[in-house]
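Lab notebook, bench 4. We co-purified these components, and the gel suggests they stay together. Before we commit to crystallization screens, I want a quick structural picture of the whole thing.
Request: model the full complex, all chains together.
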Amino acid sequence: MRSVLKKSDSNVIALSFLIVVILIAMALFMPDRFYTMSNLRSIVFQFPEYGVLAFGVMACMISGGIDISLVGIANLSGVIAATIMLGMGKSNLSIVLGILAALATGLLAGLFNGSLIGFLRLPPMLVTLCGSQLYAGLALIITKGPALNDLPDNYKFIANGSIGQIPVVLFVFIAVLVFVYFVMNRTVFGRQVRFMGSNYEAARYSGINNLKTTLRCYAFSGLMGAISGILMSSHFNSAKSDYGTQYTLFSILIVVLGGVHPDGGRGRVAGVTLSIILLQFITQLFTFLRIDTNYRTSAYGFILISVLVITMISDKRRLRRMT
Amino acid sequence: MENTNPFIRLTDVRKAFGGVRALKGVDLELRCGEIHCLAGENGCGKSTLIKVISGVYHPDRGTIEIEGAVVRNMKPIDAIRHGIQVIYQDFAVFPNMSVAENIGINRLLLEGEKLVNWKETRKRAIDAMAAIGANIDPDILLERLSVSNKQLVAICRALFNNARLIILDEPTTALTSREVDLLFNILRNLKDQGIAVMIVNHKMDEIFRIADRITILRNGEFISSGTRDEYNNARFSHDLTGRELMAVKYSPAPGDFPDETVFEVEKLTREGSFYDISFAVRRGDVFGITGLLGSGRGEIADAIFGLSPAESGTMHLNGELIDVQSIDDAMNQGIAYVPEDRLTQGLFLERSIQDNIMAASLPAYFSGLKLQTGKMNEDTDRWIRDIDIKTNSAEPPINTLSGGNQQKCVMAKWLNTKPKLLVLNGPTVGVDIGSKAEIHDLVRQLAAEGVGVIVISDDISELLENCNRIIVVHDGYIVGRVTNDVSETELLALLSRPGKESHENEVTD
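Here is the predicted assembly.
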């Protein structure tokens, strides 16, 4: 236990603590509403689609950049999957092909971001901001505006189906989580992303190919966008160019709250995972308290700024302790 | 000259960073109208002391008196108001502004002016330059000036700000000998105007030429202070290094490697950086490359490591022709590079010691579809033990270590790639004396084991002590090839030989 505590950083402890506080508060004040099977299920149906996005943002932010094009990538992937499935008469083969095409779209879009950032050293913030418009625009061209509705039943099952009481999407999320954890912690690439984000020059001087690492990083992020796009279109039974626009801010909030440092180099999958869960609880709390959606957006923005300020202050403290 | 009032007096100043005690009780007195030399090897606390004087750091203990009055909690702006001006090695100038603007800007900021009278400023800038006999076009952009002229602009700016004390941090590093003469004349001129001048330097001959008084620091401790006449070469180097004699000079054990060449470059050229560079590193050699700042010494290393490849010429490693177009190429051939700027190029400051040591050899630990973390821990611990990195574990971030131990980690990072050729650029810059000796021992040991070793440095005594063969570059050309039995003065003289002409008749011995 002691070694576990020593290993986990203060951020993970703080997040776990907040989650426990919310769980206890729920147990005290609204046990009959929170701890019901239907509520728990509704939670699980919601968070995977933006949780997966957050992993993409996480990788980019650890690498020293950011990816704000992910919602665009998600919608473009979803639209392409939907187009293929509807075009091929909703057969099971069309579902497989649609999913594969969506994943390929995400990878390609990510590679495009990565090559602008890696080859030309353009600022990631600008590249992905423009990217988000580009991908949303492509989706708009394909759909010509309205949503593509009425997707195949087996496709809808991914984000809406359950095995017993457990939503299928939870398994998808866990599979993605294991994959992300493995990539970030057990592969050379995962380490190199951290090195690059920690000190770009020193990474270069250590023989790390920053270009390759950048390309892979944004491709990885794009892949996360595509998975999220599949989950969203499956969830809504519909694909459109502008679903989930609030998820951009939301995923950045999750990642920063999860202890990923905005300057790059630092951040852990465990922190981000806990942060995803915490944010879902907070959303749930807002719903129970009947807080107007219009207020929520500014509340999330406020939380994000607070976390950034806290990060800055604790950085300064740490620096002062060291000198 | 009669003016011997102390301008600033520091008594028993102490400053610690975390556990590292950078200043352990330093006394320093700088008088008006004197040139004072602060001498000490790298890592002796010189830069910390400058920052204390200029108000950047607050001492943990000790007092600062300026013109007889104790000053507490001095901030940089207070120091400037007292007339303390520091000229750092990079001169902190604005390259895209004109000479006159550079000279005038701080004063404007200081006086809180809202409107700028450029005509007046320009005139006053010209006066400031005339006062020290500098003759520079006030309207030219600063980036177009030579290093020496940039320095003069920085000095003019200091004067323009009513300097009472001017501190120059290693002002001669990038200068040719003629420019050094010019600088020294200007400094003497300042002294005659009653300004206190402190130069930070560790080149003995220059110090004896210019200094009225000398203060020597070693390892953060105050060692001695006195007039120039109180020092001779022997006392000076003893106080500076703490050693009676210079250590034994390196020479490869005879017979170990009979004339085998490890690494050879022929006619290596990159336009604008270096030309026609040829040399051979034999097995057992610690091969030195030296030259002034901007001579091309670092660029040669960059080319060997593939950072910015040479345009023509060949390289052979262990007899095989190698083509290095990228860092990947260099690493695949077994070339390792300890870069010059440890903080920005060598270290991942907030990452752990282990991460730093493993950074260049990660792919070697990837097997069975994942990183073998057990093996990584083992190897890290082995390096910490083998080259004596002073830490209790491999987990703390590397910025908790001293400069010397950080540098050992950078070396461990490269030794872990099992290099055939190790290029070290300024391996002991900012390293304390103890670690410096250990790094030198390690370098010698590697050479003795048959690794090709190239040391690039501007520290003449370091080169003569540790390299058995040395080449000197200037303006990108090799101007001399010597062995380590030449004297420091002879080697220093080579440094400023003009590049291209001298290349045709290199000095060899």
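The interface with chain B takes residues 182, 186-188, 191-192, 194-195, 198-199, 201-209, 265-266, 321-323 of chain A (CB under 8 Å). Worth comparing against the SEC data before the next meeting. The two ends of chain A are 32 Å apart (CA to CA).
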